[in-house]
Amino acid sequence: MKELEKYPETNPFKVPEGYFDNFERNLSEKLMKKNSSENGLGKLSSIKPYLAIAAGFLLIFSLWFMFLSKIDKKNVASETRTNSEDLILTYFESVSSSEMIDILCSEQFQNQDFAINYEKDVDLLIDDIDESILLDEMEDI
Amino acid sequence: MQQYQDEELIEMLKVNGKEFTLSLIVNKYKEPLYWHIRKITIDHDDADDVLQNTFIKAWKGLDGFRADSKLYTWLYRIATNESINFLKGKKKKATFPIDINDEMLNKLESDVYFNGDEIQFKLQKAIMQLPDKQRIVFNMKYFDNITYNQMSAILETSEGALKASYHHAVKKIEEFLKSN
Fold this sequence. Notes:
The complex is a heterodimer.
Chain A: H1 19-46, H2 48-94, H3 97-105, H4 107-110, H5 118-128, H6 131-140
Helix pairs in contact in A: 3-5
Chain B: H1 6-16, H2 18-41, H3 44-61, H4 71-93, H5 97-110, H6 118-128, H7 132-142, H8 148-155, H9 159-179
């Protein structure tokens, strides 16, 4: 006799009472849960066009915001530039024409790279200078 | 509730839709599929989960179900695959794969839904030593008396390979029973 023949072929397991009677109910509950979660996704797909529109609006708003902030930066930059121009003009206004000629003719100024066009600048300044002052200066030289 | 033949159920599926037909399929197959799954997963709660998932898979697949495949074979295949995947998932989570068998045995020892005596517990212990597929083949043949032909359709394995698998399983179980 084979060893296995001593062992019964009967099912050794059992289930909780009423398990099979309640199985359909439990399964339908699980199916309903699954369905409702899938319907949740369904709802999401039904509002997809609106989401796309909203996303489009958001994108346009972001681009507009970025554009505005760039404009602001430019304005700040031009304001800064205007401020520096003002500062230079104020400086020039405070310096007398004779002082300006001295500066432009000075050795230190002429050795600077930016003084390449100083002759033109001097000509421009000369136009504004009172001729009598200019003559006096010329006499001193 | 009246139990219908598979051919009738397939016909109902075409006429009445899957909502109505599934309830009849569940009514017919819940018990045989449960016992098939329970012998693989051992624990009742695990078997319950796998059985529910089996019917949910069946529900999803009923639209594409073709009459050229037998309903019985198709459902058993889903149940077997779900059980194997369940065990694979358990093994993946475990630190050592061998822990799963020990864990299942420990559970079985204290399981209030295990009706067996010491001899039956010893046999389950021996079956647990087998690789998953060999265990399934052994259970199907030894406890459920499923023919090799039916088994071949369910497991998509040749009858020859199934016979060899069962022969190896019996040999290993006999050796285990003798030495323990």
